[in-house]
Design goal:
The complex is a heterodimer of chains A (285) and B (301). Chain A contains 15 helices and no strands. Chain A is an all-alpha fold and 285 residues long. Chain B has 301 residues and is mostly helical. Chain B has one domain: Orthogonal Bundle (MetI-like fold). Chain B is 74% helix and 1% strand. Chain B has a two-stranded antiparallel ribbon with strand order 1-2. Chain B is globular and about 75 Å long. The chains are: A mainly alpha (285), B mainly alpha (301). At the A-B interface, helix 1, helix 2, helix 5, helix 6 and helix 7 of A face helix 1, helix 2, helix 4, helix 5 and helix 6 of B.
């Protein structure tokens, strides 16, 4: 189709129609986030005005300043989210790299069964085992802890990540292993010195997905974190919007939403290539 | 596919060292899956046969939980509502995504930018985007509420009125997920050989016949996949209803996962919540099996 478009240069009216359609869709799809960001910069009186005023009277960082002292302060909840996400990333990257290597480079009895056992986690949604998971975490004294939430997030990120990493290792020719072994590498050195740099794109993809999944996770955080000072950003924002601490401050809400969207947006824009390769690999399986 | 020699080497190594090094690399992942997945999975079955409070001793109750499940009208309402939501939201996402994919499947300038912008809502959390849309639909300060009521399309607040609350949630979900399906379809479309389109154009085919006789049939697998991802995801809906409607008005927007959440973590009837979970698992496994059948079929042709 693309080639057709190139060969017969599209007529001017077609180009105008094309860009017209695409740009109106940009407006439509970007409006919620853009409007939220604009509102976060309004004065509190402006942001809470009814009906909404379309042109802000002044731009200010007042809403962001108020967030600094909301509850335990936005940085507190931000670091809760960050701790859970980073622990999840570390866990997922470490476990799935090791397992991917094991599945790709070794043969032993029961290997295929184990692979299926790990992948089957994909078929059964974590929503359906939340109730017993709560008891498991409680028995391990990990309920209401950030570490516990990270461990759960890690587990549910594993099937995709192990699958992804096994494929990454599989795509490296065995000649490389043989050459390294002739040079005297054992299996540990083969992984850390020779193969790891080659599978780095896979590691980045797996880590990126783990970060986004954990950062955006809501239901498990809602159930497993019971103390307000443990809340991650989405749970904290829900409480702010439910008005448990007085009337809802809409300007403050939008500032909070902007802060929780920002890390994801930055990571996605920087690592878009890895994100897309993961999305395609994950959906083709 | 091992040779006998290799197998012999493997077994002797096994019996000497007892564990293969390959197994050791997999062990940590396996440990996580056992502790945080397989054990809870087994517990769901066990717990569903008990009267299991959050604190205090569980007592065996046989199939009591399943009996009350059958008589629980809110559960059946939630099952019907979840099905209805799934049936409505899936084609809504698909049609919008198909149009977007057609638009961005081109070599025009700026098309990469359009793709990125259309995709951006996908990376926002479902919880966060639900919060965003609660505000957009708010009857005092919400921009969309303001626009819709000025156009005369709504008279009552969107999310607290029975006739519009589901539509409000669907609009949010389409906005949030359309980019994902768009990319899936785009990848599928780009895999179709351009010669087919060129031949069709030479034969004088116009847009509609091209869609029906070339694009749609060749996208069959991709479309099946996109629909299944959407069906499974929609069946597990929780965040959007918990945040946007709170299950209301009058319990009219409670999904199955929402009802499990309430049973286990609001009423603390963990045994009953487990029975509900097990049923949800059965339903989703059935959908997954269906998925395998649909996706495998083309290979037989």
């Amino acid at each position: 189709m693309a080639r057709v478009a190139q060969e017969s240069e599209p007529k001017a009216y077609k180009r105008i129609a094309y860009y017209g359609a695409c740009s109106s869709l940009v407006v439509l799809l970007a409006l919620p986030l853009v409007w939220s960001f604009v509102t976060s910069l309004k004065t509190p009186a402006d942001a809470n005005g009814s009906p909404p005023n379309l042109i802000p009277s002044a731009l200010t960082l007042e809403n962001y300043a108020k967030l600094l002292h909301y509850g335990d302060g936005i940085f507190h909840y931000f670091s809760n989210s960050l701790i859970v996400a980073m622990l999840t990333v570390i866990g997922v990257v470490l476990l799935s790299t090791l397992a991917g290597y094991g599945f790709s480079r070794f043969s032993f009895r029961g290997k295929n069964v184990l692979f299926v056992v790990i992948l089957i986690t994909l078929m059964i949604p974590f929503q359906s085992i939340l109730t017993p998971l709560f008891l498991v975490l409680r028995a391990l004294s990990l309920q209401n802890t950030l570490v516990g939430l990270a461990l759960v997030n890690t587990t549910f990120q594993l099937p995709f990540s192990v699958f992804m990493m096994r494929n990454s290792f599989d795509s490296i020719p065995r000649d490389l292993d043989d050459a390294a072994k002739i040079d005297g590498c054992d299996s540990k050195e083969l992984l850390t010195r020779v193969l790891l740099p080659v599978v780095l794109p896979g590691v980045i993809t797996v880590g990126l997905f783990a970060f986004l999944a954990s950062w955006n996770e809501f239901l498990a955080a809602l159930i497993f974190l019971t103390d307000a000072d443990k809340y991650t950003l989405p749970v904290m924002l829900l409480n702010a919007q439910s008005g448990y601490l007085g009337t809802v401050d809409w300007g403050l809400m939008q500032a909070g939403i902007f802060i929780s969207v920002l890390p994801c947006a930055i990571l996605f824009l920087l690592l878009q290539r890895y994100y897309m390769s993961g999305l395609i690999a994950g959906s083709i399986k | 596919m091992q040779t006998i020699e290799q197998e012999l080497v493997a077994t002797t190594r096994c019996s000497r060292r007892r564990v293969s090094p390959g197994f050791l690399y997999i062990l940590p992942s396996l440990l996580f899956v056992v502790v945080f997945f397989l054990i809870p999975l087994a517990m769901v079955v066990w717990m569903s046969l008990h009267d299991w409070p959050l604190l205090g001793e569980p007592t065996f109750s046989g199939v009591d939980n399943y009996a009350s499940l059958l008589a629980d009208s809110t559960f059946w309402d939630s099952l019907w509502f979840t099905t209805k939501y799934t049936i409505l939201v899936t084609p809504a996402i698909f049609i919008c995504a198909y149009i977007l994919a057609q638009l961005v499947n081109s070599k025009m300038r700026w098309v990469g930018l359009f793709r990125t912008i259309y995709f951006l809502p996908v990376i926002i959390g479902l919880g966060t985007s639900s919060l965003l849309w609660v505000w957009l639909f708010n009857d005092q300060v919400g921009l969309f509420n303001f626009i819709l009521s000025h156009l005369g399309m709504i008279k009552e607040p969107v999310l607290t009125t029975p006739s519009t609350s589901l539509a409000g949630v669907i609009v949010m979900v389409v906005w949030k997920t359309v980019g994902f399906t768009m990319v899936l379809l785009l990848v599928g479309m780009q895999a179709i050989p351009t010669e087919l389109y060129e031949a069709a154009k030479i034969d004088g085919a116009t847009w509609w016949p091209i869609q029906f006789f070339i694009t749609l049939p060749l996208l069959r697998r991709t479309i099946a996949l996109a629909l299944i991802i959407s069906v499974v995801g929609s069946f597990l809906a929780f965040d959007q209803f918990f945040i946007m409607t709170g299950g209301g008005p009058n319990n009219s927007t409670i999904t199955v996962v929402y009802w499990i959440y309430r049973a286990s973590f609001t009423y603390f009837k963990l045994g009953y919540g487990s029975a509900l979970s097990l049923l949800l698992m059965v339903i989703l496994t059935a959908i997954s099996v269906l998925q395998l059948l649909v996706l495998r079929e083309p290979e037989n042709h």
